[in-house]
Amino acid sequence: MSVVTIRDVARAAGVSTTTVSRALSETGRVSAATRERIRRIARDLDFRPNELARSLGASRSMTIGVVVPDITNPFFPQLIAGAETAARESHRTIFLVQSPDGPSAADDLAQLRAKQVDGIILVGNPFPHPAELAAAVGDTPLVVVDRGASLPNVATVSSDHRLGGRIGVEHLVALGHTGIAHLAGPAGLDVTQARSAGYREAMAAAGLAPRVVTAGFSAEDGERAARLLLAGSPPVTAVTAANDLVAIGAIRALSDHGLDVPGDVSVIGYDDIGLASFVRPALTTVRQPTDELGRAAVRTLDALIADPASPPRPAPLPVALVERDSAGAVSTGRADA
Length: 337
What we know:
The chain is of the alpha/beta class. Helix content is 43%, strand content 15%. The chain has helices spanning 6-13, 17-25, 32-44, 51-57, 75-89, 102-114, 130-137, 161-174, 190-205, 219-231, 244-256, 290-306, and strands at 63-68, 93-98, 119-123, 142-145, 155-157, 180-184, 212-214, 238-241, 266-271, 284-287, 320-322.
């Protein structure tokens, strides 16, 4: 099938190619009736404008860079899917990059800037100092996901992680648990601090002593942290985890230790990745709207590109507890009160 060109549209409409260009780009003087007729003919012919040519005229590449730390973590593909949906709606193309640390991120950001992307979405922040991030991004519009506290002057989007840290504990307290530990994410990250703060707030509200073990974000991290927890004292009857992968790793360690989940120890994850409902027992978890997080990042970046002087800071997205099978009432045989 031959490609339909602007000349084909002009010929069918009986107008010049200049008039077609003005009608489709909404620039210049074209009557409403002519504009609508040209648009209808363009749709009927399945005409697809040359985005590169159109973007050059508007000083835009119609591309954005999305940088994630770990494409193998199921959380990130779900976020990327939401971003891709929003990017398509705004006629943009995504360049996806995986950058696990500062040096690789600096190189990747330089390449994205060389491609003249209109903006960058950075999921997390691998740079230890804001000045390093600013140097790597330059004057390219930037939106950072989940780093609002440490980057107050940068446009950010995030979920309400402090609330997420609280509601897991509150659910376990309602089930009768008092020995509740938290397997935290990597130290120093905004999301780790927010979720841990929510955990501590809920424990304090219930009059309980907190017990936090630093884990990470992988299943291996969760397994390792749970083994450290089991080696210590006093024993616990419930665990909240930094994310679902950590929770899954913890369940494995508990099982290897001869403990039943949730009969002996309840476990609550965070994120609600697709795998959460398929593991056994199915994982009770705090769901954050991951798809919407990706869409919100693109919409925020669009607003920033349109007005760089006013970095938007949307309100945190809501989270909710999803009850499945990995959390239950405290066993009277293992009550820790």
